[in-house]
Every structure is written in C-alpha cells, then in structure tokens.
Amino acid sequence: MKLATLRVDGSTRAVRLDGDRLVDLGAADLGELLSQGGWAANAAAVDASAARTYPAEGADFAPVVPRPSKVVCVGLNYKNHIQEMGRELPQYPTLFAKFADCLIGATDEIARPEETTEFDWEVELAVVIGAPARRARGAEAEAAIAGFTVLNDITCRDWQFRTREWLQGKMWDSSTPVGPYVVTPDELPGGVRPELEVRLSVDGEVMQHDNTGDLLFDPVALVEYVSTVVRLHPGDIIATGTPGGVGHARDPKRYLTGGERVVTEIQGIGRLENTVAEESAA
C-alpha cells in the first residue's frame, strides 16, 4: 500500500492511494492510523467505492506523520559519503535528532534561515514505525517497520560544525520535507531491507544518485539499535543517512541560496518537489 496524510479543508486525513484517487481511511493522519491495532488490514479493507476520495493529482500532502514522537537520523551510513566527508567507517550508527517542527510536506517551501550561508541537501530513505518497539531484535524489529518514505535532511553546515555535536545544524524550523507516501515493505524490492535508487537534483542538475542496498546499517539493524536506546512508537521516523554528492563536500562547495527547485526521489516510493525560500525574520 501507499499511504499518506492529505491536507483537506483546513485539516488533514489519512489516505491510501488507489489508482488516481486517494481513499479516506477514517483517521486524521497517518500517526493516528498507525497507532491503531491492525492498522494495515484495516487500511487495506476500506472500500474505495464507499469511502470519501480525493484526486491524487495536485494533492496537498502534509508530512506523512505530522507529529511523530521522535525523528531519529543517522549520519555517515553510505561509504561514499563517509569518504567524501573525510571520515572513517563507523563501528556504530551515528545518531542525531530532528523534531516535528522541522517537517514539511512534499511540495512545501523549504525555509532557508537568514542565519546560515551553508544550506545543504541530503536525500534519505526514511523508515516509518508501525508498532511499539523496545530492544527489538530480528523478526520483531522487521515487524515494527510500517514502511518507507522519502526525506530531505536539509542541513545548515556552518551551524552543524560549530561544535562536535550536529544537532544545531539539523533542527531548523520548516526545513525538512518528508513524503509524499509511506510505502509498505511488501511493495518494495528487498522488503524491509529495500534496494532502491535514490536521487536528488537541484534545478535539474543531479547532485546525488545511489542505491539503498549500499547502506552500512540497514533499516532492520537501525530499528534494533535505536530501540535499544529509546522506545519507538507508531509514527516515529528513522532517517537512514545520505549518499555522496552533498554540496558541502564539492570542490568548490555549493549551497542553496534561495529560489532553487530541489527534487528528492526514491524508486518505488515517490518524489519531493520543493522550492527553497528565504525564511522571514519575524
């Protein structure tokens, strides 16, 4: 299934893609849907002929989960990106966080803060959690994965490297597109360890292109690792890291200055199409 959170009449609805229509699933958003026991069977069982539907074309997508309890991000998880950033291969996942206020929808404007001059892009496969997980292992960790979505881990590099901790470069308001769909593992090659092409372009120029099969720590391993540290709840998001091609590692370095069209896409899941805007100082 392909699931999303749609903005409708000043509110939001959880929907399922059915051809060229989005079928209302009876929940306010995917966070609410995923918190229900048996959510997958219930979502699949909704009769498109009896439910309210909306056109998929021109849909106004909210972040797939508008208010996750946590967004855990992984740095340095593709070999080529680790090398371009001058790092050694890590023994353990490098973790940091984002917050719900960072997230925007699939076609929303990316707010570029006036405080940065080094605004960078990062295409990422993101895991969406569909069941509570604490110290999950093996089959339990696999079963906790509701599906996968697309995330652009926009980063203020000058703030990221002010200190040894990355959080202040990653947590800017209204900066992180995520969506448009959550795709369940059964629809993807590789299932819970999907092997999908990822790509990011800026104004039509391809900047990043790789395959999620090259992840050092795959999605199941990340669920195991993160759930050892903190309880994962339905709707939580784990961003699995970015491949090589970020602007900060280029020679000369390249950054987003405002007005660019950034397209972030993953095979079989969908694409984010966002314009970089200047953030208001208000």
- Succession of helices and strands: EEEHHEEHEEEEEHEEHHEEEHEEE
End-to-end Cα distance, whole Å, is: 41 Å
Question: In percent terms, what proportion of residues is strand?
Answer: 25-35%
| Poorly predicted segments | none
Tally of DSSP β-strands: 18
Rounded to the nearest angstrom, the radius of gyration is 18 Å
Helix- and strand-based class?
Answer: alpha+beta
Helix tally? 7
CATH architecture verdict of the largest domain: Alpha-Beta Complex
| Overall CATH class of the largest domain | Alpha Beta
Mean pLDDT: 96
Features:
Acylpyruvate hydrolase; single chain; 2 domains; eleven-stranded mixed sheet; alpha+beta; globular; 34% strand; Fumarylacetoacetate hydrolase, domain 2; isomerase activity; 282 residues; 15% helix
How would you describe this protein?
With 282 residues, the chain is α+β, with helices and mostly antiparallel strands. The chain folds into two domains: 2-55, no CATH class; 71-278, Fumarylacetoacetate hydrolase, domain 2 (Alpha-Beta Complex), CATH 3.90.850. 15% of the residues lie in helices and 34% in strands. It contains seven helices and 18 strands. The chain has helices at residues 30-34, 39-45, 79-84, 139-143, 157-160, 167-170, 219-229, and strands spanning 2-8, 11-18, 21-24, 53-55, 71-75, 94-98, 103-104, 110-112, 119-120, 123-129, 145-152, 155-156, 176-183, 197-202, 205-211, 237-239, 261-266, 270-278. The strands form three sheets. Strands 1, 2, 3, 4, 5, 6, 7, 10, 11, 13 and 16 form an eleven-stranded mixed sheet that branches. The longest helix has 11 residues, at 219-229. The protein is globular and about 55 Å long. 48% of the residues are buried. The mean pLDDT is 96.
